Amino acid sequence: MPHGPSSVHNLYSLQSHILAEEALHPGASGDFSWIVSAISLAGKAIAHRVRRARLENALGDEGSTNVQGEAQQRMDVIANDILMRCLGSRASIAVLASEEDEEPTIMRRGKDGGKYCVLFDPLDGSSTLDSNGAVGTIFTILRNDPLIESAERTVCQQGSKQIASGYILYGPSTAFVITTGTGVALFELDPFIGSFILVKNNIRIPSSKRIYSVNEAYSESFPHGYQEYLRWAHANNYSSRYIGSLCADVHRILLNGGVFLYPPTISHPDGKLRLLYEANPMAMIMEQAGGLSYCGNTATLDVQPMKLHQRVPLVLGSRDEVRIVLGHAAGL
Ligand code: AHG
Ligand code: MN
Ligand code: MN
């Protein structure tokens, strides 16, 4: 089987991985692999633009704000456009929804072949781009319910219903992390051959690691239990790492262990991160790697989304570390 550890020494592409996974589902039409191939094409195109952003004078504000009232960076708009162009032509996509767009875009109805919805955060952590920070694209794939008329209601599905999710991290290398519900695989872009090559399969997150990742400058405005956690961590030889780009923080935690938290704050009483574009895809990755993800005391994947751009407080990472944070947050 191509999934064994020794196979990593062979050249094995993202495309072959998805085709092999599809072969496990007799009757699969191949539509799903077309969608992953569109996301991978978009990833390569965005990686190229990110690397040239300074040279092309594409950094800085676009001069507009998105639906969340946040300043859009020029690169947010470019990445969103690339994803829409790559995914727009795929015949099985019913709805596309982006963090940058107010409304989801209906591409085609169920009766016209629309089987899937794709939701994405085109450029996560984009405010770190000016200083050459690592940014990413986060995506999730949902099944389309042809009986639901409203596009917003169609995509407001619990995270447990995601068919696949992942992210592309534009760091020193371009990493593609994906789960289709059978473990987590990591691919890296070989720019010379233009393919994402498998470097790690069935990733398991360490169950503990004394590192927390939080914007500690806001700690005075965290609920009491989170402040208690930080005091406990300080007293217990924890270290801290925070990049301010969820993809980059999650990637480090996935590979090395630790815990990420973005609690409610006074300026973001419901938390800052978006349930559909950020929390759910990352929660599926974490759980598939043996970690945990919670919004308050509810598992992220069990939260019923009420609206498209809903925000949630988030704690995710190594199983034991997440439990310690939740224990303090609940005042235990
Ligand atoms: P985006 O760039 O897509 O708006 O997301 C930014 C997010 C996330 O990447 C990061 O974890 C978090 O915002 C950082 O927020 P603070 O700057 O408030 O710490
Ligand atoms: Mn983001
Ligand atoms: Mn973004």
Overview of this protein structure:
There is one protein chain. The chain has helices spanning 14-23, 31-51, 74-88, 151-155, 224-235, 246-256, 275-288, 319-329, and strands at 61-65, 71-73, 93-98, 105-106, 116-124, 135-143, 164-170, 174-179, 184-190, 195-200, 211-213, 239-240, 259-262, 273-274, 292-295, 298-299, 311-312, 314-317. The protein has 332 residues and is an alpha+beta fold. It folds into two domains: 5-200, Fructose-1,6-Bisphosphatase, Chain A, domain 1; 211-329, D-Maltodextrin-Binding Protein, domain 2 (3-Layer(aba) Sandwich). The longest helix has 21 residues, at 31-51. The mean pLDDT is 94. The site of 2,5-anhydro-1,6-di-O-phosphono-D-glucitol has 11 residues, from strand 5.
